[in-house]
Amino acid sequence: MVKELAERFGKVESIVVESKQVESTPNMERCVQSSASVIEPKGKESLMLGKKVKLCDMAGQPIANAIIMSLDKSKMVMGKSLGEEYYDVAILFAYKPNAPLFVKDNERKIIQDAVGSHIVWFRDFVELDET
User: Fold this and answer.
1) How many Å apart are CA 57 and CA 71, to the nearest integer?
2) Domain extent for 105
3) What does the pLDDT profile of the chain (131 residues) look like in tens digits?
4) CA proximity to 94, closest of 56, 65, 124
């Protein structure tokens, strides 16, 4: 049991170290929040499906990376229809684990709660991850 806890602690510690490195990186790029977004024009939107993206907060700072899981505007995720406002994304890694979600539910309030699950994220705060 002690060995298992030590392994878990080691994993958490490495995530924290990675997170601090990302947050302290000078000249961290800001996500694009303009109508000239990488995601537009609409005709090329279908190319986003399955792509790795950055999720940004209201200040335009990247807070997580994710994969676009669906572009189906009629799909319901977290009780919301995707429509023209949201993407269905699966969170891969949280740069800022305590950042709040735009849309919350009973189990998920912050980014860390959503790692490994599907959530909705405002399209205007999603940027294609070129790395």
Assistant:
1) 21
2) 63-115
3) 777 767 766 666 655 555 444 444 444 455 544 433 444 445 556 677 888 999 999 999 999 999 999 888 899 998 888 999 999 999 999 999 999 999 998 889 999 999 999 999 999 999 988 87
4) 65
Distance of CA 91 to the CA centre of its chain: 5
Residue 101 lies in a domain: yes
> Where are the extended beta strands (E) located within 1-131?
52-56, 62-70, 76-77, 80-81, 86-94, 118-122, 126-128
Q: Is the pTM of this model over 0.90?
A: no
Distances (CA, A) of 3 to 7, 9, 10, 16, 67: 6, 10, 11, 20, 33
Domain count, the chain: 1
- CA separation for the pair 114, 80 (Å, rounded): 16
Question: Does residue 43 lie in a domain region?
Answer: no
Does the residue 5 lie in any domain?
no
In a domain, 41, yes or no: no
Q: What is the DSSP letter of 129?
A: -
Phi-psi group of 56: left, alpha or beta (phi > 0 → left; psi -120 to 50 → alpha; rest → beta): beta
